[in-house]
Amino acid sequence: MQTLNLRSTPNMEPPPGVTAHPVDASPIPVDIIVTASICLFLAASAICARTFTKAYYLKHMQVEDCRTQIGFVAFIGLLFKAASAGQGSHIWDVSPSSIKRVVQLSNVIAIVYAPVMLAAKLAVLLQIGRIFAGIKKNFMYWAVRILIVLNAFSYTGIFLVRTFTCVPRAKISDPSIPGNCISQTGSIIGIGMINATSDIAILILPLYGVSKLQLPSKRKIGVAAMFCVGLIACVASAFCLYYSVRLDTNPDFTKAVWQVNMWT
Fold this sequence. Notes:
mainly alpha; two-stranded antiparallel ribbon; disordered N terminus; SAT4-like
């Protein structure tokens, strides 16, 4: 009897006319290198500019100035590690031993994502509260605090769900182990819906605040346009949710989950 080689046997038969080349390691795709570089550069530039302004001119730092750059770098590092294991490649080009690492890393990425995203959104909401409410307990004051609480509960829930996706955790990458798991794709879709809803709410809130300012219409439009940069996050969340829904019916997991993580 021939021994099954877990390092060279494809996980799924390729389409007709395509030859499978299952490997243990894959090159990191160019798209993630470019996307990560652009995002890290923009984030680092904004943080440096803001920190310099607050420290040098205003002589005052606030809690939201402690950004999530370290967490963001860790998130990107995990994406690179998952890509080198085979995430982003077609499943028939990834060896069974590597796909286990892809599944494990996909879960770890989702776990790390929750506190990083929560910290970023709390920083934005705290800043919106200071700009439009201050110490006045008006609509903006309570709206910001309600969103903070909802985001805290949502992302804590995401963290716990992804941490305890399977009991025991080893079952995440080895379905043959006795235990229980929740639907991985179902939880990914849930995360996408929470993230998209949260981004839209955080975009709408300051636009409402701008509409109540005592400013000429042209200046209101200019200030609102500044906050509309948040549309980028909403668009990314929408695409992330779209690919999350498709993930449930796509057998080519390693390729499909990569599209989710890219938009994340």
